[in-house]
Amino acid sequence: MTRIKRNRFFSLLILTFLVSCSTQKNTGLNRFYHALTTKYNILFNGGESYKEGVKKYRENHQDDYSRILPIFIYGDEEIAAGLKPQMDRTIEKSSKSIRMHSITVKPDQGKGILSSKEKEFYNKNEYNIFIDDAYLLMGKAFFYQMEYQSAIQTFNYILNQYNDPEAKYLAYNWLIRTNVELKDFREAKEYLDQILTDIEYPEELTYERNLTAADFYLKQNMVKQAEPFVNEALKQAKKKKEKLRLTFIQAQIKEELNQLNEASQLYEKVIQMNPPYEMAFNAKIKRAALFSGSNRNSKTIEAELLKMLKDEKNNEYQDQIYYALGELEMKRENVQKAIEYYQLSAQSSMGNANQKGLTYLAMANIFFDQHKYMESQAYFDSAVVSLDPEFPGYKELSRKNTYLSKLVKNLKTVQHQDSLQRVAAMSEDDREKFIQQIIQQRKTAEAEQQRREREGDNRGMYTTNPNRNYALNDQSGKWYFYNQTAKSFGEPEFRRKWGDRKLEDNWRRSSKQVLGVEQLSQSEISDEILDPKKGLDENKPEYYRVELPLTDSAMEVSHKKIQNALYNVGEVYRNDLKDYPLAIEAYKELTERYPESDYKIAAYYSLYKVYEQQGNQSQADIYKNMIIRNYPDSKYAKVLLDPNYFKQFEKEEQEKISFYTTTLNLYKKQKYREVIQRSDEAIKKYQNTEYVPKYRFLKTLSMGELYGVTSIKKELETIVEEFPADPVANASEELLMAIRENELKQFKDMDGTSKEDDVADKEKEEITQKTLEEIAKIYQYKPETKHLLGIAINKTANINQLKFNLINFNLDFFIQESYDIENKSLNEFIEIISVKDFKNAQKAKEYYNQFKLEEKTIFTDIETAEFQYFIISQENLNKLLEEKSVVDYLIFFRNNYLD
């Protein structure tokens, strides 16, 4: 046989073998061939890719030693995204194994009766023993990519289709882990209970089960329940890395359970196991923090920590070392020294957000215990931003920060209004000198900050309270305007640099208030409105004059704000902080400073309650009798005389709260018509209550959403005038300012139409007609009088360039005329440029038409797209400058001058 013939023969033989090994035939040879090819070819390559991906994940993972380490290393979206090539290849290879080598066709049954074992074999769903492994590998790849639903489907498919114990119970374990990552702990618990009670669970997989159970409980911060599973897993662990990690976790669990001696011994054990440097370092830090022995031992630990500071390898860990030194000083009861170390910890931070959060938290707790609540709130706020929301105790920390923030807000209000009143009382010359001092101080501070930034010197950023006060202070109290404490108290470094996080809805009333006198002073709407001084230069006097109460009515509003704030301060001290002496101080300051205050009876009632809570019944009775004797018709007196009265009143209050909450939710869902309808109903039903301004404001916002913001200006002005002391007044003023700032942008949409498609034409006509009627009361159409061309333009524009372009336009098209060009300020955002005079409206319109043709040239290089131009009489221009708003006149212009 020739060589060529031999080659052809063997090729034919191989081809015949391959054909005979088709997945459509189920023979022993077929099963052997496809199983062999699956395991050692395609699936092997997929498995290698999976291992590569897992290795890459672990290399990129950074453990957070400020929390109990996770049992497993996965779940980070950013790292998971980087594994896509490896996991996609794993999924591809697994799919290929299934597609090319799955054998589902039944084998030849043969003749005769089948034994039970043969029947079991014949009824199998799959005859390639490695296909279930392919599905398991695929599910794990989906899991690491965080495609959890695909992973769940894959693991469930294994459970439904295959009976192999190893594949089945591994699928259970991964199914539990997947649900844990999805935070579906109820579903995970059902599966976990199954495998914990299943007597057929394979002994060789108990290590996996213990890890799964430990992960399930630790992810819910159920440390005590996790402990036995960690202990059992540690006994079964074979690899050094796994033993190290589990020992460290075991030590952290002991520490969490306050078994400090055992924890210290376990950290020492970790150190003796020669772990990676980072783990060894953290074990030493944690062992030091657990110190509770003699002074000699504390000196030894301190020396070790200070030595670690000098080691260059620890440069990136200095924040943790300083923190440990702070903890050591706290155990020595050397609080001031501890504060210094905590400050150095924050200053040394190099990106470990949770460590920085722990440092802030330690500082917050120190000041809280010292009843220095303003300082405490600043650090609590910083801790809330720095710590991961999944951090143990985060919810309680956030709750405490919420009521401290409310306290600080009201304390700042008192401080702010006192400062404003004090400056308003100065002579005009003294006031201006004082403001100039503030401006100079601000400029000096800015220059110093710029110098530090240029030199890369950030010292001092954390070495004191985060709210350092650069303000000019007098002996009678702190000045507010450039007082960093007052302006940004509680704003952490992150927020000051990168902006505010989204505020949650905190417009809620406490059911603990007997008569609901506590004001609805917190609203998500007013919180998100622009700063009232926005647009003003902080280095100009006007910025500081704008809030000064220089009139009797403004001074009255200022005093109202102080009264409201003092009452709220007392309520936080009493209800949230349980600091009864400070609560009494706040209520008494309110009643002594303002003996005719609307809050007086409420303050008396709160004093009655706080003395009662202190067990000082004689003092409580004094205030109880004052209320009953002097204010017998008040609801407070009725509550004191008839306890059942309170129940009825509380029921009514809850109804009011419920009605308002529903209305607010409708506003959030953009159901503006329902909001308007419910607001009208509430305004009529709750007359003379603090709810009226809230509903007026909410209704106005809904009108603005439906018909455009310019349609609500008058109502906003009315709200400010009628409810000057209510928080909605500030929100209305701020919204008015925002409208003025953006009205040039808004005008192109001012066509009287609604944002809702279902608004009836008749209603649209009514709104438009109402707007025109209001405008007609301001502006008059007199075409025979002198006119001019006006240009309303954003002040950020290059005004000089525009005036230059206008001169050129006049030379090109109206060289025979001698028109003057002037500019006047309309408001803090808009400038009015005028070209004048024209004999009448017709002459002005001729100029306007030519102007419109050359618009592109005229507005070249002015650096803004925010402008409108129009024809206007001198009389109407004067009114426009009084009104300070251009949109109403633009509507008038459109309806009277344009065809």
Task: Put the structure in a nutshell.
With 899 residues, the chain is mainly α. It contains 41 helices and six strands.
Describe the structure.
It is a single chain. The strands form two sheets. A four-stranded antiparallel β-sheet has the order 4-5-3-6. Residues 1-20, 459-531 and 749-764 have low confidence and may be disordered. By secondary structure, it is mainly alpha-helical. Helix 30 (635-641) crosses helix 31, helix 31 (643-668) packs antiparallel against helix 32 (672-685) and helix 34 (713-722) runs antiparallel to helix 35. The longest helix has 33 residues, at 28-60.
DSSP, total strands: 6
**Alpha-carbon Rg, integer:** 38 Å
SS-based structural class?
mainly alpha
Average predicted confidence as pLDDT: 80
The rounded distance between the terminal residues' Cα atoms is 103 Å
- Strand line-up in the sheet with most strands: 4-5-3-6
Largest sheet: 4 strands, antiparallel
How large a portion of the residues is in β-strands, by DSSP E? under 5%
Backbone shape? extended
**DSSP helix count?**
41
Residue stretches low in confidence (pLDDT < 50, at least 5 long) are 1-20, 459-531, 749-764
Proportion of helical residues: 55-70%
